[in-house]
Amino acid sequence: MHRGITTTSIGTLMPTESGSGQGDDLALLGLLQLVSPALPIGAFAFSQGLESAFELGWVSDEASLGDWLEGVLADGLTRCELPVLARLYAAWAEGDEPALVAWDRWLAANRETAELVAEDSRLGASLARLLGSLGLAPDAPELPAEAGHVTVFAWAARVRGIAPRQALLGFAWAWLENQLAVACKALPLGHTAAQQLVERVRPALVHAVDEALSLGDDELGPALPGLALASALHETQYSRLFRS
Amino acid sequence: MTARLDLRAPCPDSGHRFDAGRRWVASLELGFAARRGATRMIRARHQGPLRVQRPFYPEGRDEACHVYLLHPPGGLVSGDALTIRARVEAGTRVLLTTPAANKLYRADSHGVAWRQHTELEVADGGVLEWLPQETIAFDGSWGEQATSIDLSGNARCLGWEVLALGRPASHLPYVSGRIEQRFALRRDGKPLWLERQPLDPRHPRFHGRWGQGGASVQATLWAVGLADGREAIEALREALPAGPRWAVTLRHGVLLLRYLGQERNAAWSLCEAAWRVLRPRLVGREAHPPRIWFT
């Protein structure tokens, strides 16, 4: 699978924001901006199968939500979005267009259901549009056609001079916050309970990034059959707040 | 020693080794092409214990060519490496199935894995139905089952894999071992569906709801090349019994139906019922269940 794509340069960093100490500060602020729930790309509208897991009774309280989140983190993000984000970041850094296209497609082909495909492409398109309005769109190479969220996120992290490892941590953090916001709205989960779950899952985010950075290409691919089933069942769920 | 080898390995090129390097190779390569408007099997090369029966045409001479794949040992043991390749040329219609369940036996004391690779290629204008009977994994089985489907142009394909873990009738659940099931479907080289299912009963995902949810039977059915995928999905939801154990979706033009549960018969009936709904839409012919399924 994609034997031509190497990951040797994940560690390289060429900040495009100028200034040394100021560059780090700007990069940090750029990351906070990129992963903020206030970023107007509509991420709040998607639950990634979680709303369906509530409906099915699979997730019903703080404890079972914690298990679900740790499971999805370990068997989903760790083996899919995070390592591919690292590879896409490296591809942007090297201007490696074939690798960009290949990993963007790889991720799209791994999306299990119609709603997960739609979420990825809508978020990608929204973020690309936003970057365009800020004068931050890539010119060479350009974004792949219908680039997915992770591909555009990788470019945004790169153009803001965010180090790859921090980009992965930020992506995982944004996922966690968004899932907790879904639970607060739909379960419902109390806001303090949500913060207790942050405390529980926070170390796992670091572990997930460590592991994601250590995986070889042939070890990648999400293993979330329950989530896939839940997400497909969501297509016919009678009452729903979220688009995935 | 010789007797033992004779019992287990009818093919002359069987390995004599009993360590991790042992491999018993079997392969089957099939080719189908159109001859005067009818589908003909133009190639059937085999190595080791994999065979095909003479193709037949239960739907009529100019209709789909049905072929049964035979694996006389009936299952895979440690070190077995099976490769099945089928190439379906333009203008041909092929249905492949098996006469019995495929068994994945417990790994030997060295924990040597088996593997089974199926490589299906369908040319522009060809149709392939891949409808093997289910696979039963014995406790302690260790190996990899990979299916790749390469389509060109407007090739059409429908297939399934039904996998039952353990033998509930004998009270022998699947509690150890590791099986990885992989799928890759590409059209003109572009990946449309990639999936891997690592099945490890000792991993949290085996019982976790995000993962297997404790399911001992799973089925995956794909259909690609439908003229109207959305209409097909509506028809499936109408025809199949509703419930939380299966769902259908359409992404990148690939229809996927998944079952996670405990019932081999429920999984099989679901796939067969889905095939009855989809076949007229995909091939323009009613489903014609192979007689071997009922024997």
UniProtKB/TrEMBL annotation, chain A:
Coiled-coil ranges from the UniProt annotation: none
Presence of keyword Chaperone: yes
GO molecular function, one term: nickel cation binding
Subcellular location field: Cytoplasm
Source organism, top-level taxon: Bacteria
Keyword Cytoplasm recorded: yes
One cellular-component annotation, GO: cytoplasm
Record key words, sorted: Chaperone, Cytoplasm, Nickel insertion
Assembly mode: UreD, UreF and UreG form a complex that acts as a GTP-hydrolysis-dependent molecular chaperone, activating the urease apoprotein by helping to assemble the nickel containing metallocenter of UreC. The UreE protein probably delivers the nickel.
Family from the record: Belongs to the UreF family.
Function: Required for maturation of urease via the functional incorporation of the urease nickel metallocenter.
Identification of the protein by name: Urease accessory protein UreF
Protein species of origin: Bisbaumannia pacifica
Automatic annotation (TrEMBL), chain B:
GO CC annotation, single: cytoplasm
InterPro entries xrefs: UreD
Subcellular location: Cytoplasm
Major place of residence: cytoplasm
Pfam families listed in its UniProt record: UreD
A molecular function GO annotation: nickel cation binding
Keyword field: Chaperone, Cytoplasm, Nickel insertion
Complexes and interactors: UreD, UreF and UreG form a complex that acts as a GTP-hydrolysis-dependent molecular chaperone, activating the urease apoprotein by helping to assemble the nickel containing metallocenter of UreC. The UreE protein probably delivers the nickel.
Entry similarity comment: Belongs to the UreD family.
Role description: Required for maturation of urease via the functional incorporation of the urease nickel metallocenter.
Protein name stated in the entry: Urease accessory protein UreD
Gene this chain is encoded by: ureD
